[in-house]
């Protein structure tokens, strides 16, 4: 069964017809040509497919496109303002926070979303005071909050440093 849906992807409204079993990841990559979200494990375990849906990070391989009808979807491609990269993107470059780069778009999206989560007062497993109003992003907090994004090249030290620099500014 197919259904017509509309998504706002990286600031542009996109309408497409998809099989109701199509994941958001496959709709983005195969139907819309948005390839910054990567297909890694296709089981929600690696985070390469991470996108923001209505401001929250989502493994796009685990959500159906039809369930996101009308949603605002932001990929790593949509973070930049024209030619001006997002601060997290710039920091990943300056800290050499990638090797092969396959996981990088998902890492960057996850970093942007998790910084918002911390700003909004969402604690993590390692947060000392769950009732605190603020959750400063220590190295331990960053590592925990980014634990759903795997890097097969093991660039974690530089990834954490890149995020830490943006979180401090």
TrEMBL record:
Residues 3-79 form the 2Fe-2S ferredoxin-type domain. One of its GO terms (molecular function) is oxidoreductase activity, acting on the aldehyde or oxo group of donors. PROSITE patterns: 2FE2S_FER_1, 2FE2S_FER_2. Keywords: 2Fe-2S, Iron, Iron-sulfur, Metal-binding, Oxidoreductase. CDD domains: fer2. InterPro entries: 2Fe-2S-bd (IPR002888), 2Fe-2S-bd_dom_sf (IPR036884), 2Fe-2S_ferredoxin-like_sf (IPR036010), 2Fe-2S_ferredoxin-type (IPR001041), 2Fe2S_fd_BS (IPR006058), Aldehyde_Oxdr_Iron-Sulfur (IPR052914), Beta-grasp_dom_sf (IPR012675). Pathway: Alkaloid degradation; nicotine degradation. The keyword RNA-binding does not apply. It holds the Pfam family Fer2. The keyword Metal-binding applies. PANTHER family: OXIDOREDUCTASE WITH IRON-SULFUR SUBUNIT, OXIDOREDUCTASE, IRON-SULPHUR BINDING SUBUNIT-RELATED-RELATED. This is (2Fe-2S)-binding protein. The lineage of its organism: Bacteria, Bacillati, Actinomycetota, Actinomycetes, Streptosporangiales.
């Amino acid at each position: 069964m197919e259904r017509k849906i509309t998504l706002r992807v990286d600031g542009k409204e996109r309408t497409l017809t998809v099989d109701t079993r199509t994941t958001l990841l496959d709709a983005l990559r195969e139907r819309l040509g948005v390839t910054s979200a990567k297909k890694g494990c296709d089981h929600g375990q690696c985070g390469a497919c991470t996108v923001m849906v209505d401001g929250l990070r989502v493994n796009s391989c685990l959500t159906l496109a039809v369930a996101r009808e009308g949603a605002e979807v932001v990929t790593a491609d949509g973070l930049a303002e024209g030619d001006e990269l997002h601060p997290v993107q710039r920091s990943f470059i300056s800290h050499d926070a990638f090797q092969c780069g396959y996981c990088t778009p998902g890492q960057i999206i996850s970093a942007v979303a998790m910084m918002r989560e911390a700003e909004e007062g969402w604690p993590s497993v390692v947060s000392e005071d769950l009732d605190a109003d603020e959750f400063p992003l220590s190295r331990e907090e960053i590592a925990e909050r980014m634990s759903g994004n795997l890097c097969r090249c093991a660039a974690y030290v530089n990834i954490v440093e890149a995020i830490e620099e943006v979180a401090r500014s």
